[in-house]
Amino acid sequence: MFPERFSNLPAYAFPRLRALLDVHEPGGDVRHMSIGEPKHAFPSWVTDIIVENAAEFGRYPVNEGTPELRAAIADWLHRRYGVAVDPDTQIMALNGTREGLYNAGMALCPQGSTVLMPNPFYQVYMISAISAEAEPVFVPATDASGHLPDFAALPVDQLDRAALCYICSPANPQGVMADDAYWQALIELGEKHDFQILADECYSEIYRDAPPPGALQVAQAMGASPERVLTFHSLSKRSNLPGLRSGFVAGGPESIKRMKQLRAYSGAPLPMPLQRAAERLWADEAHVVENRALYKAKYELADRIFGNVPGYMSPKAGMFLWLPVEDGEAATLKLWKETGVRVLPGAYLSRDTDAGNPGQGYIRVALVAPYSDTETGLTLIRDCLFGQE
Asked: What is the CB-side half-sphere exposure of residue 366 using CA atoms within 13 A?
């Protein structure tokens, strides 16, 4: 009666976390540091725009994004990365990047191919591959590889069979950034073995110092095939609007055409008043600069609190700490029972392999709360797991 292809999936990270923790009483005031849900204020004028355009809730939304929204996205890509894309043929609005990251596999991946992805990883990459009847290949992103996957180390036959390669930069959960050399080497590998690169860059605007380079930026500078790279971005992290569900994909016109064709049947386009708000958000940088400063202050806070912890990795970007512990699940449970702080075991973001689970010895800690709450939570984590410094 039921298909088997999803029957062997592990429980998703957060139901799994609830099963681990919620049978126990918290050891203090509950502090949620497990999920990357931004808590900084979004611009107040967003609400005004939605109200001003509320009558457009009475219209079916434009499926690929309004011309004004796609133009605003194209302008942002040019300002941010110096790349030129055609808003009519190379951009499609998304109902959050998860939708696009999933449907890219459905639209672009031949059956029987391999789909390359980091391990740990955003779990939608794996589900997209399985849905497309392709084989997910988990490539360790560990300390030994600089917390970015070394795709070139894969056997040639897996690379030759690859159709897609997912990569997140800045990386979730480690916070490392792919530099120009990494992007260039990966794009060259994609050209050699003829696979497409799906660049999940939704954390691109949260960084400590220099902005991370973008995949399209490097690809265009190299003169790579315009179909080689698709980039995915979101307003969830950049603008603190995860509930707006507004993102986009940009890349080669043939790839976008195929994704649009699928979305015409299966997509859930963004309501028109929300598209109007997104148009303004992509055009405004002032709120992004303010948001980035708040995260930078919390990076410095984390450095002060954990600087003497062996193996601590100071975040360069993103909104997480990837803290080394002996056992991620045991550390998560200890924190909950003794302090009430809620974090996520690293193994819940990774898949088991013959070499083990690369997330087993880590916990992921979200830096999304206001500064004072973050300071209290991080101090509790340090004192509980590492001893007071």
From this structure: 18
Quickly list H helices, the chain. 13-21, 45-52, 67-81, 97-108, 124-131, 156-161, 180-193, 215-222, 235-238, 253-266, 272-283, 286-306, 328-339, 371-381
Q: How far is CA 158 from the centre of its chain?
A: 25
SS (H, E, C) 240-264: CCHHHCCEEEECCHHHHHHHHHHHH
pLDDT digits 0-9 by tens, 139-178: 999 999 999 999 999 999 999 999 999 999 999 999 999 9
> For residue 4, which phi and psi values (nearest 5 degrees)?
-100, -10
As a whole number of angstroms, the distance between CA 29 and CA 255 comes to 49
Tokens of 178: 């792919």
Assess contact for 342 and 384: CB atoms under 8 A: no
Question: Are β-strands 31-32 and 341-342 bridged in parallel, bridged antiparallel, or unpaired?
Answer: parallel
Euclidean distance between CA atoms 200 and 332, whole angstroms: 27
Structure confidence by residue, pLDDT tens digits, 71-124: 999 999 999 999 999 999 999 999 999 999 999 999 999 999 999 999 999 999
The amino acid occupying position 325 is V
DSSP 318: S
| Sign of the dihedral defined by the CA atoms of residues 60, 61, 64, 70, in that order | positive
Q: Rounded to whole angstroms, what are the CA distances from 140 to 41, 148, 257?
A: 35, 8, 32
